[in-house]
Amino acid sequence: MNPENATTNISVVMATYNGERFLKQQIDSILNQSLPPTELIVIDDCSQDGSLRILQEYASKNPIVKFFSNEVNIGFVKNFEKGISLSSGNLIALSDQDDIWVVDKLQKLFEGIGDSLLIYSNSELVDESGKSLHKKMSDIKNQIGFNSSLMFVIGTWAPGHAFLFKRTLAEKCIPFPSIVAHDFWLAFMATCYKPVKYLAEPLVLYRQHSSNTVSANTFSKSKNKKKLSRVEKEEKSRERMLFLYQSCPSERIEEKNIYKKINESYQNNSFGNRVLRFKTFFKYRDLILAYKNKSYFGRILFCVKMFFKIDA
Questions:
Q1: What is the CATH code for 10-207?
Q2: What is the DSSP-derived secondary structure letter of residue 62?
Q3: What is the rounded distance in angstroms from the CA atom of residue 177 to the CA atom of residue 131?
Q4: Sign of torsion over alpha carbons 18, 20, 22, 27
Q5: Which pLDDT does position 217 carry in this prediction?
Q6: Rg (CA), the chain
Q7: Closest CA to 55 of 17, 91, 84, 89
């Protein structure tokens, strides 16, 4: 997309909940972008700290800050969905409450999105004080461009805090489903129509701390998180694969047929389904396992594993 020939109308949507410690620094980094957003939509999800006071102060002083407060807690996924629905820009960027945006983040994403529905960038990891941890997201996660929905069969890492996407994509994705994360859903649906672009340059300082809703795994997972049994994991995998098969548009004939085969092979571990699963994964291993960044032999071994077990 050529900035000189396009209308720059960017909505930034931020979901907040008890984020007073870092909120001001993030809002300031958004308002001070070299390519300023048209509006900053902030949806607070019943914060109990000083977040409301901070947001009211910004909204009273800056007309592009539009602040809404939920009457009941709806969770961050539905909070982002609500914010997107209330936004008006033809381009949308999602914002966490505790990051810091590089000053030209929106400018570079805007210049790079072109005909794609979604673009995302690398991120630099920082600690609670904003000090660099000397790691980029790409050092610990395989971040790539995505040109096929089959690259989402096993999983991806295209984090929403680094997104810029077109409203036409949002219209295809809302309401957000509960079975997958909102950023996974947006990126998956984007690849059903156009390739997702990736900028290797870090444009977000991604803060790591013990209160992260989602982190880059630099903090241990909650001890209270329920550990699923193998049967429960397989059932979740079946539900997820059925959902992806149903969501893949019928006009994507080849991908739809491949998802159909995988979904059928996930129904049970009969010998026939094991063979179908192995053959399908093996044939399309370079696409399905692109995110895993495995070696040639590693991809073959993964396909062999799929003969014996169902995996998400």
A1: 3.90.550.10
A2: -
A3: 35
A4: positive
A5: 52
A6: 20
A7: 17
